[in-house]
Amino acid sequence: MHETHFGSPRSRVDGPLKVTGAAPYAGEFTAPDLAHGYVVSSAIAKGRITRIDTKDALAVPGVVQVFTHENRPRTAFRSNAYQDEVAPPGKPFRALYDETIVYSGQPVALVVAEDFEIARYAASLVRVTYEAEAHETDLEKVQAKAYVPPVKRQGISPPPKPRGDSEAAFGASPVTVEAGYRIAVEHHNPMEPHATTVVWEGDERITVHDKIQGAQNSQSYITAVFGLPQKDVRVVSPFIGGAFGSGLRPQYQLFLAVMAALELKRSVRVVLTRDQMFTMGYRPDGLQNVALGANQDATLQSIRHDLIANTSTFEDYQEATVNWSAMLYHCDNVTTTHKLAKTDLYTPADMRAPGAPTGLFAMESAMDELAHKLGVDPVTLRLRNYADIDESTNKYHTSKELRAAYQLGAERFGWSKRNPKPRSMKEGRELIGWGMASGAWEAQMAQTSARATLTADGRLEVACATADVGTGTYTILTQIAADALGLPMEKVTTKLGDSSLPKSPVEGGSWTAASAGSAVELACHKVRETLFKSARGLDHSPLANADIERVTFHGERIALVSDSSRFVTLADALKAAGVEKIEAEETASPSKLTQMRYNSFTHSAVFVEVRVDEELGQVRVTRIVDAVAAGRIINPKTARSQIMGGVVFGIGMALHEESMPDHNLGRFMNHNLAEYHVPVNADVHDIEVIFVEEHDTLTSPLGVKGLGEIGIVGTAAAIANAVFHATGKRIRELPITIDKVI
Ligand code: MOS
């Protein structure tokens, strides 16, 4: 057997392009006669524009036009035309639609000029007069008006129905814990800002370079909103500079850039500033309450997890936050609730593993509190309450190696050496704490198509509309394709991020490896079959009596397994077929039967060491072991990077990231990377990733479950638990900043 690329560590095929600056991003594409748009943002959170004076702006030499709600061209008037593939229920925001202001930072004008600096300067001259109304951005003030969203968001499971009687069981439990938890609002802050460059191709045709996790999502959005035929709108976004969910939905700069380009009949670029990015979607605010009841033998008797999360006034943003508490452990009495309350902020957005790290911060902190009260080891408590099936839906798991993750993670970490007593481990002036938590995330496959094209020079191209948001999709698809035809990876080109390519959902939800990967494999296998048939059909073919199971594809040869000297070259096989190339397009779909009978999740066990200097209130995360069960791993190198990135994100959630609202003004005040802290190299020490062996034949044909998101889940909880172990202080509001530690 030849070594397969599948399962082997491979460097990113797009790495050289990225590190040399040769990979173009949405705001870098250019065109002759490119005009630049700059957005003017609302200074109030709620009310209406009474007057908008653009005279001074228009007078600046080089200004082409200033668009406002008063002169914006007519576009689709139905709000549902603005719905996109992943929009929550409600009425999507429409930029420059009318004089109404529904959140601070809402775009109120677009200044278009010959260059960026002129546009930015002229934007400062647009005078907007408002009539402000009282706004409310404080979730605590509106929680009494919380409601269960009347319409379920597509693809998001609402909390499962209660089982048993959690209230009675809680009352009867000899050992209980109950507390409120909260994490700060977080903004995604990818390196690449929201940006769109619209290239005017003439005849009402446009090519759009958009910062988006799904080119076809932007394409259908534009065609619906502007009433354009699909053939006239091509969205091309080959590279994404990080997104974490912020690029799932088309953002207003896309609308504005397309509107301006169509109106001016020229190419237009609109790039948002970092501070404007703090007026976009965010990980929602939420007030969580967890109550657990257990017997003295550490068996859970009752679980209750309630959440009130904020949403905007116009959309009901939903994510699976409390559901994890109902499926992770064996327990007969469970109630979970998830309500929304409207605030005068923009709609929250999916952010890496939306819901899971939030909900599991509360649940896994509560489990730690319970372990402490019971006097049992936190890992023991989890193993004692291990759920073999998903009791919240009564479905089997397609696979679940969480037990092995606990065991392997604990072993590697050296967990058995932990002194359970808080404040018992010390070195110099630093208190040392060891904490752990469980993580879970959905393992999904979504219907996706791909095309494979083999040419006589032995080159294979695979293509799919999905995006590579920096996760390594180019690389893993290249590996899968190369294996299918026994080619070196250098012979394979993968094309992504183009609405004209075979259909794909947005890249998100950790489903892309399983979905696009399966589609690419199907298409390549189709090519392989066609190729084999023509090789066998060759005059005097050495493969005349063979079947496809008895040949290998390797080194541009199709050879008998039993005798590799009997072979047909790829070029001869193509020649025999009388074609220049063999092409196949295939669609991979998840199994309906599997979906009916099973649930599929990835799992993790996170072990953390923190060192706390109590005098300075400083917390350092000095060691993390994350043991992950995510099915087959296509590329251990890019997979490890994904988990590391998620873990670092979790460190940010635990210690740094906090969008600070000023409720008087109704906006986030720390809207830049100087004041909104993300982890930097100095915050990141030793992170070890373990992939637990997990055999899964049901989630996807590849055995892949996906791992773009699981790395963040559980990390913040494990850190908070470690801080408790170090200091004896239970901090239930993230981030754990100095003031909370001292
Ligand atoms: Mo992810 S939050 O589905 O990009």
Q: How would you sum up the major sheet?
A: 7 strands, mixed
Fraction of residues in β-strands: 15-25%
Q: How many domains is the backbone divided into?
A: 3
What is the second-level CATH architecture of the largest domain? Answer: 2-Layer Sandwich
Average pLDDT reading: 97
CATH class descriptor name of the largest domain? Alpha Beta
Number of helical segments with 4 or more residues: 19
Q: Within the CATH hierarchy, at the fold level, what is the topology of the largest domain?
A: Aldehyde Oxidoreductase, domain 4
What is the straight-line distance between the termini? Answer: 60 Å
Radius of gyration: 27 Å
Structural class: alpha+beta
What general outline do the C-alpha atoms trace? globular
Number of strand elements: 31
Percent range for helical residues? 25-40%
CATH superfamily annotation of the largest domain: Aldehyde oxidase/xanthine dehydrogenase, molybdopterin binding domain
Stretches where pLDDT is under 50 for at least 5 consecutive residues are none
Bound molecules: dioxothiomolybdenum(VI) ion
Pfam families: Ald_Xan_dh_C, MoCoBD_1, MoCoBD_2
Protein name: Xanthine dehydrogenase family protein molybdopterin-binding subunit
GO molecular function, one term: iron ion binding
